Amino acid sequence: MTPPATNGTSRREKPPQTLPDDKAYDDFKSSSSVHYSAQGHGGGYAALRDHFYNQDTAFGDEKRSTLGLRGLLPPTHQSLATQVQRTLHQLRSKKTDLGKYIFLTSLRQTNVRLFYATIMQNAEECLPLIYTPVVGEACQKFSRIYRRPEGLTISLEDKGKVAEVIDNWPVPAGAPRIAVLTDGSRILGLGDQGWDGLGISIGKLSLYVAAAGIHPRATVPICVDLGTDNKEKLEDPLYLGLRRERAGDDEYHPFMDEVMDALNKKYPNLIVQFEDFSTERAFHFLERYQKTHRVFNDDIQGTGAVVLGGFVNAARLSSKASGRPLHDQRILFFGAGSAGVGVATQLKSFFTRQGLSDDEARERIWLCDSKGLVTKDRGDKLPEHKIHFAREDNEGKQCKSLIEAVDYIKPTAIIGLSTVPDTFTEEVLGRMAELNKRPIIFPLSNPSHLSECNFETAIKATKGTAIFASGSPFPELDYEGKHYIPGQGNNLYVFPGIGLAGALSKCGHISDEMITESALALADSVNDEEKAEGRIYPSLKRMRDISRDVSVRVIQMANKQGFTRDNGYTKGMDDEELKHWVEGEMWQPTYESFAA
Ligand SMILES: NC(=O)C1=CN([C@@H]2O[C@H](COP(=O)(O)OP(=O)(O)OC[C@H]3O[C@@H](n4cnc5c(N)ncnc54)[C@H](O)[C@@H]3O)[C@@H](O)[C@H]2O)C=CC1
Ligand SMILES: CC(=O)C(=O)O
Ligand SMILES: [Mg+2]
C-alpha cells in the first residue's frame, strides 16, 4: 500500500500505481530518503549539511542523541516559529534587496523547511525578494553573486550525452514533477542573460513550492546553455556560462529535441514549463512540443491566463461604471511579443464566451509594437505570430505613437507588455480617463523599473478611476481620502496551480482549455472581502487557496478532455472531495519530529 498523503487529510486510498514514478514521489513526502546515523561518526555533521533534512536548533533530544549532534548545536532547542523570527530579524537587517536575495538563497541551501516557512508566512514581504522584481537584478548579476551550485545546467557541450547529464540529478528516476526550463535569452524585460538566467528557473520553482505545495525535491530548475549574445557577460571574467555566441537554429533545434526526449524518457511524469525564451523560439518550441510532451509556456500561456482572469473582473467593474454590456471592450496592446500575443489570444475567449464569433472577438483587439499599430499595410514583413491580429480595417491609417493609437481606437483597456518604461504617460492615462469612466490600465512589463507606468501615476492621472494591475508589485496608495490597492497581473497566480494539477493527475497533455480554465478559476477565487476592497486579483496571502482552486478546475478540465493518467482516481471525486484531496497533497514546511 502506498503511504498516506502528506498531512493525512485524503479520504480515499491512493489509486493503484499507474506509472512507475508514483512510489518515488511518495517516498519524498513520507520520509527523507537519506537516513543519517551517528555510527561511524560524522553522521550528525552530514545531517546538518543536508538542506532537506536539516532542522538546526529544532532537532529534539532524541535526534541529537541518535544522530550524534551533541556538541554540534547550541544547547537551546528552538521551534520552527522561533527560527522564522530570527530569520526575519536577519533578513530585515540586510541593507539592499540583492543582499536579501542572497541571504534567502543561502537559507534555501541550508534549511529548506525554514526557507519555505518564512516565505509562506511572510508572502507579501518575501515574494518580491525571491521573484520579480529582485530576481531580475539577481539574474543580471547571477555569476557574480554565485556561492553554491543549484539547479541543472545542460550545455551545448553535453550534445549527444544529455541523458548522462540528467542521470546526475540527485533524485530517483521518475520522481521529479515540475521543471522550469529557460535558455536565458529574454529574462523578464532584461534581455539575454545567458546562463545567468538559471535564476529565473529557481525563482519560479520556489513559487511552485510556496504557492502550490509541490515537494521541493520534485522540482528541477534547468538552464539550457547555448551561449549568449550579451557582450558584457562574455567579457566578464566572472561569467559562469558558455563563452560563445548563442547558437543558431541548426544547432539549437536538434539539441532541444535531445533535451526534451531525455527528460521525457527519464521522468515520464515531468511537466516542463518553458520560461523566458526569446520571442520566435518561445512560439516555436511551444508548437513543437505541445502535442508530444507535457509542456506549457509560461510567458505565452501563463500570462494569457493571468490577464484573462484579472480582465474578467476588471471588465465587470468597467461595465458597471459605464452601463455598457460586458463584451463592449476595446483592448489595445502595447507590445506584441510572446506575452502580448499570448494574452491577446487568451483574451479572445473573453469575447467568444459571451457569444461573439472568433472574428468579432479578434476585431476587439489591437496590437502596437515598436513600429506602431500592427496593420497588414504598414509596409514591413510581419512575423508569423503577429499576423492573426494585424488590422485590415484601418483604411490606410497608421499610428506611430501610443497616444495616436489611443485617440484612433478609443480603447477601454491598455495592456503593456513592451519592456519600455513610462510609456503610459500622464497624457495617455489622462486620455484613457476622458474616454472611460473606469479605464483598465495594465502595465505588465517586468521588473518594476520597466513597468509602462507605476501605480501612483496611474491613479493620479486618472483621478482615481483606473482599474490597475502591474507585472511587479507596487505599494498601496492613499489619494484624496481614499485607499487604493494595486493588482499584480503576474503569471505567478496560475502557473503553480496548473503545474500542481498536471503533477497530481499525471496529465499526458496540458491543453489550451486547461489553461483557460485556470484563468476562470483565478477570476472566481476573489472573495467578497477582496471584491469590497476593489481587487480584481485575490490577495497573495492566500496563495495556497488560489493554487488549490486553480488546480481543481484544471484537473476537472483535464478529466473532461481525457488527459489525466490516474486510472480515473480524480474523475471519481466531486468538487469538495477533489478540493480536499488537492489540499491534502500539498507539501507543508514543518518539522514533524520536532520535540523541544
Ligand atoms: N506580468 C507578467 O506576468 C508577465 C510580464 N512579461 C513582461 O512582458 C515584457 C515583454 O515580454 P515578451 O512579450 O516575452 O517580450 P518580447 O521581446 O517577445 O516582446 C516585446 C514586444 O514589445 C515591443 N516593443 C519594444 N519596444 C517597443 C516600443 N518602444 N513601443 C512599442 N512596443 C515596443 C516589441 O516590438 C515586441 O513586440 C517583459 O518585460 C516581460 O517581463 C512577460 C511575461 C509575463
Ligand atoms: C513574469 C514573467 O514570466 C516575465 O516577466 O517574464
Ligand atoms: Mg517569464
UniProtKB/TrEMBL annotation:
Residues annotated as binding a divalent metal cation are 275-276, 299
Q: Does the keyword Metal-binding apply?
A: yes
- UniProt lists compositionally biased (Basic and acidic residues) regions at 10-29
What does the cofactor section's free text say about binding? Answer: Divalent metal cations. Prefers magnesium or manganese.
Task: Report a single Gene Ontology molecular function.
Answer: metal ion binding
Q: Which cofactor does it need?
A: Mg(2+); Mn(2+)
Region Disordered: list its residue ranges: 1-30
- Specify the superkingdom: Eukaryota
Residues recorded as binding (S)-malate, renumbered to this chain, are 186, 446, 490
Location of the Malic enzyme NAD-binding domain: 300-559
Active-site annotation: 131 (proton donor), 204 (proton acceptor)
- Identify one Gene Ontology CC term for this UniProt entry: mitochondrion
Q: Which InterPro entries match?
A: Aminoacid_DH-like_N_sf (IPR046346), Malic_enzyme_CS (IPR015884), Malic_N_dom (IPR012301), Malic_N_dom_sf (IPR037062), Malic_NAD-bd (IPR012302), Malic_OxRdtase (IPR001891), NAD(P)-bd_dom_sf (IPR036291)
Q: Give the family per the record.
A: Belongs to the malic enzymes family.
Q: What is this protein called?
A: Malic enzyme
Species this chain originates from: Meira miltonrushii
